[in-house]
Amino acid sequence: MYAAIRTYGVADAEELSELVREEFLPIVETVPGFVAYYVLDAGEGVLSSITICEDEAGLDESTSRAGAWVEERALDLVESGPTIVTGTIAAERTREGLPAQT
Q1: How far is CA 57 from the centre of its chain?
Q2: Which residues contact 2 (CB under 8 A, 6 or more apart)?
Q3: CATH number assigned to the domain comprising residue 29
């Protein structure tokens, strides 16, 4: 599996998170090989997204879609970034039956 972490400086983390829930999640979940997507509010105007895909092609597609969506729909909320880190997931563990958080 592969992951991308994109970190942004943002003007309004709550507003951007809501926009992501309403508009971007339906876009990214249609990427072939999509596994999961998370947004982390680090406070002080910093948001990071974490995308996990089964393969590198899916990760590349999710990164492309994220860039296009930010440019079209959220650019006025982004003050800096993204800083993007991508790579192969080297170790993992999940807990089965863990409820999804929203």
Answers
A1: 16
A2: 52, 53, 54, 55, 56, 58, 59, 86, 87, 88, 89
A3: 3.30.70.100
Residues in the chain with pLDDT < 70?
Answer: 97-102
Q: Into how many domains does the chain fold?
A: 1
Domain interval for residue 17 = 2-88
With respect to residue 7, please indicate whether it lies within any of the assigned structural domains: yes
pTM comes to: 0.87
| CB neighbourhood size of 67 (10 A) | 13
At 97 the pLDDT is 64
Q: Which two tokens stand for residue 95?
A: 């807990």
